[in-house]
Write a structure and sequence with these properties.
Helices cover about 85% and strands about 0% of the residues. It has 20 helices and no strands. The protein is an all-alpha fold and about 500 residues long.
Length: about 500
């Protein structure tokens, strides 16, 4: 790739990141505004019931065929036959799991000793039917790094979900609020994506010549299965040992702690996968790009999680309300573990796009062994013990993932260490300042205490960045300049 081509490609990536992550941020702000309002209305028990259904929903969602759409992004040449075949696979798999969920609903209710779980699962089966009309057009747009159109659709679906959530909560729908909101969001997105991508093809159920797609999709499917075991084993294990109240406390604490990892990193990984696939022949470039992405993402993630751990009590009390105060120590522990998870999930799009999906399978397999074992031990100490499972298991999983992936990506453990060092130093200085102010904040009401600690944290982190991480500011300025240079 020529120097001019590299600059144009870099600018295209920056534009894609701006649209994808920018729209995600706005959409999340819309959803969070509704979510935190709804949390104050609903009870922890409602979230515990919803968490029980999610353990089933997420497991079956694994079989929705979305992994096969990644082959459309990586394919050197895209044909109409290939698109029709993938569409056919998506329809078959999602129709099948919708039926399976309806049939499994009574068994799940019996497992959790909660009859209403069956009713919730039957209604939620309709979510799968929208998936083909989201996944196919999204992958085709992502192949072209066209995230502007997707951004508009995502914002529209976020508004639909937020409006539904608020309306149902105020109407007293209880746990059904948590079912209706995502239903409204995904169907709005399905309709919008299909129109935006201008793709409406007849599905093909003849799979001749699609071996490469199924090899790639199969590896991703196995990886997703192992990842599911890792991420859902806590609810499956906790759902048998904890009551709905304590399970709800843990589930919402995990929701808060995973805000960056589950809401902001996936959009960046979507763009990263497409970008790595485009430059997969140049390993030196991919290594530098990966180190830069780690540096910039951890520049924001580390201070966020350190700050969340430090202000857990006033934050929970102000944002969620006093009835959630028991979740504060759980949030604090989970916030300590999340930087390791954040860095770990950055490896998957890089190794997969570079043609090594087996590495993602091995990494997910390690997580599927480490985390359930940790939860089986930790659940004996209740939701706090479950949080400790993350503190111990996440760093170990990251170490294994790094050992598997650094050479393939074109980097090293030392290179990644250099990438995160500026954020570590700046965050360390922030932690010292905020901890020094904690005795004063302890005598204040939760709102002024939160305001004081957050203000000190932001000011001290900014000062430390100027002292020890000034070059990062230049990198962000460069990204902004590149973004302005793209006509959209």
């Amino acid at each position: 790739m020529t120097e001019t081509g590299q600059k144009g490609f870099a600018a295209q990536i920056v534009s894609a990141i701006a649209w994808r992550s920018g729209s995600q941020m706005i959409a999340q702000l819309i959803m969070w505004a509704a979510t935190f309002f709804v949390i104050r209305i609903l009870d922890p028990k409602d979230y515990g019931l919803f968490a029980m259904t999610q353990s089933v929903l997420v497991f079956l969602s694994l079989l929705n065929g979305q992994e096969f759409t990644g082959a459309l992004v990586r394919a050197p040449e895209l044909t109409k036959t290939l698109i029709r075949q993938v569409f056919g696979v998506l329809l078959l798999m999602n129709g099948g799991i919708a039926v399976a969920q309806v049939l499994l609903a009574p068994l799940a209710a019996e497992y959790f000793h909660t009859p209403i779980v069956a009713q919730l699962l039957v209604v939620q089966a309709a979510l799968y039917l929208a998936t083909p009309f989201v996944s196919l057009p999204s992958s085709l747009l992502s192949r072209e790094l066209n995230y502007k159109v997707q951004a508009k659709v995502n914002l529209g679906s976020a508004l639909a979900g937020a409006a539904t959530s608020l309306g149902c909560a105020l109407a007293g729908f209880g746990v059904w609020t948590l079912v209706a909101a995502p239903m409204a969001a995904i169907w709005t997105r399905a309709i919008g994506m299909t129109i935006a991508a201008r793709v409406l093809v007849l599905p093909s159920f003849r799979l001749k010549g699609s071996g490469a797609i199924f090899a790639f999709g199969g590896a991703m499917l196995l990886s997703s299965l192992l990842w599911l075991i890792q991420t859902q084993s806590d609810v499956i294990i906790g759902g048998r040992s904890l009551d709905a109240h304590n399970l709800g406390l843990y589930a919402e604490a995990l929701f808060l702690a995973q805000i960056v990892t589950s809401k902001f990193v996936p959009p960046l990984n979507d763009v990263a996968f497409s970008a790595y696939a485009r430059m997969q022949a140049d390993r030196e470039t991919t290594g530098r790009a990966f180190e830069k992405s780690v540096r910039l993402i951890m520049f924001g993630a580390l201070p966020f999680y350190a700050g969340l751990a430090l202000v857990a009590w006033p934050f929970v009390d102000v944002v969620l309300g006093p009835k959630w105060d028991e979740a504060a120590p759980i949030v604090r522990l989970l916030a300590v573990a999340m930087p390791f998870l954040t860095m770990q999930v950055l490896f998957a799009p890089a190794t997969t796009a570079l043609g090594h999906p087996r590495l993602q399978v091995w990494s997910a397999g390690a997580g599927a062994a480490i985390m359930p074992l940790s939860f089986l031990i930790g659940v004996e100490w209740g939701p706090v013990g479950m949080a400790w499972s993350w503190v111990i298991g996440a760093p170990l999983h990251l170490a294994i993932t790094m050992a598997l992936g650094v050479r393939v990506i074109g980097t090293s453990a030392r290179g990644i260490g250099r990438a995160v060092l500026p954020a570590v130093l700046a965050t360390g200085g922030m932690v010292v300042v905020v901890m020094a102010a904690e005795p004063m904040a302890a005598h204040m009401a939760s709102l002024p205490a939160l305001a004081l600690l957050v203000t000190l944290g932001m000011a001290s982190y900014g000062a430390m960045v100027l002292l020890v991480a000034r070059p990062i500011i230049g990198e962000f300025v460069g990204l902004i300049k590149a973004r302005r240079g793209v006509a959209i």
